[in-house]
Design goal:
This protein has 485 residues and is an alpha/beta fold. The protein folds into three domains: 3-14 and 157-259, Rossmann fold; 18-152, no CATH class; 287-480, no CATH class. 48% of the residues lie in helices and 12% in strands.
Length: 485
């Protein structure tokens, strides 16, 4: 009797989500609807493009070209892999294939009409592709957000099996659990034959040994199997497994022991049939160069001018409430451990620091930045200022002075830095930011370890595109007020 037969009853049999099978069809129907809508707009809107001849009747030509264009458009996307199940849900591959297929069709249409001397309205052509390509991308973006929302609520899940050593299994499982929008539901694990444990340290049930992978996949109705470190003994064993499950619609994923590294730093290059993963160095140095500094100066100046009326309103509310100082200055640690005076609108009572020790004892504070909901030290104007992060606007002056950046790790207190280990000290390699991954990922709702992880990810994987993305998401985080207290 194998280990699998003993533990088979532990597998909770559940039919994989059938709705996932219809995801490519849903995407195709969505694309078709977008194309029809854009086609109507292109026909009606061409009359307003004065640069082209709009007097010609195009009804006859569109009856022929319209269906052919839409059929060809869908065909190009399909041939380019835009409807493959593995492109949905994550990454930019889906959008790249969509755009490339659309540009290919536009090129073929233009060249084909020229060679065949077919009179196609130029206004219709420009509008159809000029509006159609971004509309298709936005449609897929909406579909992806709907998919992520459903997965966060437990729908459209894929049953996952992880093969490898117990430590590697728990490492992969923690990442999958941390990102529920991926839709991976871990149902069990496979360990090497020498490991007789019934479950991993994090509580994942062991359903068999790695050499029983094919049998477990069939019995447990697995959709995806992850091979982590220790999952296979040789390349031939992996190849044999892929052959054995090729008719069972099982997705095979090799998960190397690499986490918190952005896709921009990873290059996979096959050499003699062996895929080698190249990891570029961290980009912390790039985050300190002149380009980011120029962006900070221009951005902070523009925002100070734009928010000047809000500065005045906030200052008046604070002063009229209790007559205390408008600004609160606190020593924070900046790049390379340099101290600076961090500016904020005062949101607490004037003796807030005196009350802090008592609150530490009451709340069991031990590490990180102290935050609590319903903090009794916060004033009435302070609650309004904090709700929309208006209290942090004076930090634009810190950005202008060079103490901070618009985007970066959260500025730590000196007592926090005193307790840093070697890894956490990497947060100080770049200027702290007014906003960052911590701001758009939950703010004060985050645990200390999760906040550190996000800051280190930012430092090691900095890019200007990521900064722009974070700034855009900050608006949503501020208006939702999630984690703001």
């Amino acid at each position: 009797m194998t280990l699998l037969s003993v533990r088979r009853e532990r597998v909770v049999t559940r039919t994989p989500s059938r709705a996932l099978r219809y995801l490519p069809v849903s995407a195709l129907l969505l694309d078709l609807a977008v194309m029809l809508a854009v086609g109507v707009i292109a026909v009606l809107g061409r009359a307003h493009l004065a640069v082209f001849d709009t007097q010609t009747d195009i009804t006859g030509s569109l009856k022929l070209v319209g269906p052919l264009m839409m059929t060809g458009w869908l065909a190009c996307i399909a041939v380019g892999g835009g409807y493959k199940p593995n492109v949905f849900g994550a990454g930019t591959d889906e959008y790249k294939r969509l755009v490339n297929a659309s540009l290919l069709l536009a090129s073929l249409t233009g060249v084909g009409c020229y060679l065949a001397k077919f009179s196609l309205s130029r206004g219709f052509f420009v509008l159809a592709f000029g509006l159609g390509i971004p509309a298709l991308v936005l449609g897929r973006l909406a579909l992806r957000r709907a998919l992520h929302r459903a997965r966060r609520h437990g729908a459209l899940q894929q049953r996952v099996l992880i093969a490898g050593s117990r430590s590697h299994i728990d490492e992969i499982a923690s990442v999958l659990r941390r990102e529920p929008w991926l839709g991976y539901h871990v149902v069990g694990a496979l360990t090497p034959a020498y490991d007789l444990s019934e479950e991993t340290k994090s509580g994942i049930p062991v359903l068999g040994h790695t050499d029983e992978a094919t049998d477990v996949v069939k019995v447990a109705g697995i959709d995806v199997i992850f091979f982590a470190g220790g999952g296979v003994g040789s390349a031939s064993q992996m190849r044999k497994f892929v052959w054995e499950v090729e008719h069972h619609s099982v997705q095979v994923v090799v998960a190397p022991s690499v986490t918190d590294i952005s896709s921009e730093r990873i290059r996979v290059r096959p050499v003699g049939g062996l895929p080698l993963m190249h990891i570029d160095p961290p980009t912390a140095i790039d985050a300190s160069r002149i380009g980011k500094r120029v962006f900070d100066v221009v951005g902070s100046l523009g925002l100070i001018l734009a928010f000047a009326p809000l500065f005045l309103v906030a200052a008046l509310r604070i002063r009229l409430h209790d007559g205390g100082p408008v600004l609160f200055r606190q020593t924070r640690i900046g790049r390379e451990g340099r101290e600076f005076s961090c500016l904020k609108f005062r949101t607490m009572v004037t003796d807030a620091e005196v009350l802090l020790a008592r609150l530490h004892a009451e709340q069991g504070y031990d590490e990180g930045l102290f935050k609590m909901k319903d903090d009794p030290r916060i004033t009435a104007p302070g609650r309004w200022l904090r709700r929309f992060s208006i209290d942090e606007l004076p930090q634009l002056v810190n950005v202008l002075r060079g103490d901070m950046s618009l985007v970066g790790p959260r500025p730590p207190l000196p007592r926090e830095v005193a307790s840093y280990d070697d890894d956490t000290h990497r947060r100080l390699r770049v200027r702290p930011g007014m906003t960052g991954l911590w701001q758009v990922s939950g703010r004060s709702d985050l645990s200390w370890s999760e906040a550190v992880r996000l800051d280190l990810y930012y430092v090691d994987n900095w890019s200007m595109l990521q900064d722009l993305n974070i700034l855009g998401k900050t608006l949503g985080a501020v208006f939702s007020s999630r984690g703001a207290y």
